[in-house]
Amino acid sequence: MTKIKLLLLIIMTVVVSGCFPSNKSGKAEILLQGRTMGTTYNVKVVSTLEHVKSINLQQQIDDALKQVNQEMSTYIPSSEISQFNQSRTTEERVISEGFSRVLAESLRLGEMSHGKLDITVGPLVNLWGFGPEFRPEKVPSAALIAQTKAQTGLDNLSLTGNKLAKAKPELAVDLSTIAKGYGVDVVAELIEANGFTNYLVEIGGELRLKGVKSTGELWVVAIEKPITTERSVQQFIVPKDNAMATSGDYRNYFEEDGVRFSHIIDPDTGKPIKHNLVSVTVIHPSSMTADGLSTLLMVLGEEDGLAFAEKHQLAAYFISKSEHGFTEQFTVKFKQYLK
Asked: What is the 3 state secondary structure string of 215-231?
């Protein structure tokens, strides 16, 4: 499932007077940038340029992300996920540790939400013109939606340890609702394994942060206003040692006969979501989990999404459209991160 990322990455600082010393270490914020998963990545580590070069950190990051793509990109025909999707056998197959890790979390969130996060809806996403198998921007018939929907369903997918199987030969998996977040986690874990304790990792708007900037100030990021005419800030956030993901439907859609169709598909109807919720931001220790949750809450909508987030004690921030502009709501747990 293609998901537009709404996070306007404005890396700023918030000064907490008297809490942090000024920088006397000689370290700076070393920025590493590149491309992955059809988007860009930005990594900042507080260190010296000499040390970052000496351990070849950029190459380590590129290699790690290449592996994630090779496991989970539906745009790479030879990837592990593409091979599973192309296969018509219902026999179990052994899969990689990374693929298994993301599938396990996807299935957990799917069960937790009674199927509202469904990684098998890829054929429906393609049907509506939002997947790698792009189709003309035309509303499909009810019969075709029903026929395609019959090819989906989490109950047709089974994962036991590192063994994956499908009950229907045509069943396909799409992890684009969660894979970018996983990529962020992979890079963050790699950075920590190299001894860094102050860093920021961003891939296509998904984030994970830890520690402070080189000045001792906290990392601050911004949630973008859900409008297409300009890019401006809705709210500044201080995530602390956490990950953050934002999902929304206002940039990736098509219109026909004056009706707007979102790229986010409701697994129950097989159709794009239709409600006033336009953006959801989730803060969680795992970027992978935040990524999946933000989409899940978008599918649920404003009222059900907020109730779900409160029930499960999630840190979530909702932006909805109304006759008078935009309204915002957030859970009790999210309040601590507002700047």
From this structure: CCCEEEEEEECCCCCCC
| 162-174 residue pLDDT tens | 999 999 999 999 9
Of 262, 260, 225, nearest in space to 246 by CA: 225
Q: What is the Cα gyration radius of the chain?
A: 20
The answer on pLDDT for 17 being more than 50 is no
pTM of the model: 0.88
**Which of 80, 82, 172 minimizes the C-alpha distance to 123?**
172
254 three-class SS: strand
For 17-43, the DSSP string reads TTTS----S--EEEEEEEEETTEEEEE
CA angle 101, 43, 244 (to 5 degrees): 55
- 249, amino acid identity: D
* Phi, psi for residue 106 in degrees, rounded to 5: -60, -45
Cα 272 → chain centroid:
18
In the chain, what are the domains?
A: 70-166 (1.10.3980.10)
Tens digits of per-residue pLDDT, 209-243?
999 999 999 999 998 877 666 677 889 999 999 99
pLDDT at 134: 58
Contact 232, 326 (CB under 8 A): no
Q: How far apart are the C-alpha atoms of 173 and 182, rounded to whole Å? A: 16
243 close to 105: Cβ distance less than 8 angstroms: no
| Amino acid at residue number 230 | E
- The answer to whether 62 and 209 are in contact (CB under 8 A) is no
